[in-house]
Write a structure and sequence with these properties.
This is Histidine--tRNA ligase. Its EC number is 6.1.1.21. GO terms for molecular function: ATP binding; histidine-tRNA ligase activity. The chain has 15 helices and 16 strands. By secondary structure, it is of the alpha+beta class. Helix 12 links the parallel strand 12 and strand 13. Helix 1 packs antiparallel against helix 5 and helix 5 runs parallel beside helix 9. The chain is elongated, with a radius of gyration of 28 Å. The chain starts with 17 loop residues before the first helix and ends with a helix.
Length: 432
């Protein structure tokens, strides 16, 4: 036998029955996004490296340490697997002039890639669902995207999710705060760990997000961005808070919440949970009014969020909110291969009528025994067995046998005519 090839570490297959939970979650999210007026945008997995260097910031952890970047062997172009979704969405909006007729509400779903140590709910290939509201400048847009996420938690029945909120102000205010942070941390350089030393002059705001317990007192006493905000930035943030109050959405203002990407300013937020241990963030986002211009478009505001699908599914599993795995309505049992000319048209008619039916087919060893087929039918979770036996087929009939108690209108084994499948298909669907 040839040597077995396995998946790349941290890049996982999603097989049944787990894939059913992914489909269920994606369908629920799509339905909610449609009610808010969001439409789907699909961007390439591979993008120019410059998109993320310019869009996310050259000294961010993603660009410096985590991106899968490579050179195209055909033309030498520098490329990268997308590590997040917002930059690609904005690139597409600029490239295709999608804002020519006004604001756009867009969403994406798909895989992202970061070269980091795989751990629970955090993988090298992971999946995000994200929304981007482009061309909307007011604080009401910030409140609406936050409300959308809060509505999703309610739809899914998720508990133990807290909204943390902050503002990063405008670029000039952030720059003044940056200089104040550098001056402050320079005075306490001997207390900085290696990560903070590295970030001191490149991205000092990220020092505030340190998880090092020894640095917490130092960080708590650091200059606050709120002290550097002008009247317009304060008014924007205060209105966001008022609107969240009006919506009945609770929040905690966290002045240390900075987010890890350079394009954020004004409102930033995270939804966090204590149900997943250290990996507590399940959704995060904020306002990025300068990103469209940074990527070559006419200046336009934007605000959005992204959530990790793996992490959200972990949370739903921990809180026992995942639905039961779907099972077929019926399982077709075929004792004799001579029956196929009658079996296949009947099953096709049932499927056209919306019935989910699994057909037992031959293997390399031929058709299994009736007993073995019934075991397969029971293991499938199907509610009914459709028995295409010789006696039934001689009369142009199929026997329907309930495999579960109390599942639908057919409570004991009965026969139905093959040529009238559409008339009794609803009885099989009613068992759901």
């Amino acid at each position: 036998m040839s040597e077995r090839i396995t998946a790349v570490k941290g890049m996982n297959d999603i097989a049944p029955p787990d894939s059913a939970h992914w489909e269920w979650l994606e369908a629920r999210v799509r339905a909610l996004l449609a009610r808010y007026g969001y439409r789907n945008l699909r961007t390439p997995i591979v993008e120019p490296l410059a998109l993320f260097v310019r869009g996310l910031g050259e000294v961010t952890d993603i660009v410096e340490k985590e991106m899968y970047a490579f050179e195209d062997r055909l033309n030498g172009e520098q490329l990268a697997l997308r590590p997040e979704g917002t930059a690609g969405v904005v690139r597409a909006v600029v490239e295709h002039n999608l804002l020519y007729d006004g604001p756009k509400r867009l969403y994406y779903m798909g895989p992202m890639f970061r070269h980091e140590r795989p751990q629970r709910g955090r993988y090298r290939q992971f999946h995000q669902i994200g929304i981007e509201a482009l061309g909307l400048a007011g604080p009401e847009a910030d409140a609406e995207v936050i409300a959308l996420a809060a509505d999703l938690w309610a739809e899914l029945g998720v508990q133990d999710v807290t909204l943390e909120l902050n503002t990063l102000g405008q670029p000039a205010e952030r720059a003044a705060h940056r200089q104040a942070l550098i001056a402050y941390f320079e005075q306490h350089r001997d207390q900085l760990d290696a990560d903070a030393q590295r970030r001191l002059y490149t991205n000092p705001l990220r020092i505030l997000d340190t998880k090092n317990p020894a640095m917490q007192p130092l960080v708590e006493a650091a200059p606050k961005l709120l002290d550097h905000l002008g009247a317009a930035s304060r008014a924007h943030f205060e209105q966001v808070c008022r609107l969240l109050d009006a919506l009945g959405i609770g929040y905690r203002i966290n002045p240390r919440l900075v987010r890890g990407l350079d394009y954020y300013h004004h409102t930033v937020f995270e939804f966090v949970t204590t149900s997943l241990g250290a990996q507590g963030t399940v959704c995060a986002g904020g306002r990025y009014d300068g990103l469209v211009a940074e990527l070559g478009g006419k200046p336009a505001p934007g605000v959005g969020w992204a959530m990790g699908v793996e992490r959200l599914l972990e949370l739903l599993k921990a809180q026992q909110r995942l639905p039961a795995v779907p099972v077929p309505d019926a399982y077709a049992i075929v004792p004799d291969a001579a029956a196929w000319p009658q079996v296949l048209p009947t099953l096709r008619a049932l499927r056209a009528a919306g019935v989910e039916v699994v057909m037992h087919a031959s293997t390399a060893d031929g058709l299994a025994s009736m007993k073995a087929q019934f075991k397969k039918a029971d293991a499938s979770g199907a509610r009914y067995a459709l028995i295409f036996g010789a006696d039934e087929l001689d009369q142009g009939m199929v026997a329907i046998k309930p495999l579960r108690e109390g599942v639908g209108p057919i409570t004991e084994q009965q026969r139905r005519p093959l040529d009238q499948a559409l008339s009794w298909a609803a009885e099989l669907r009613a068992a759901r």
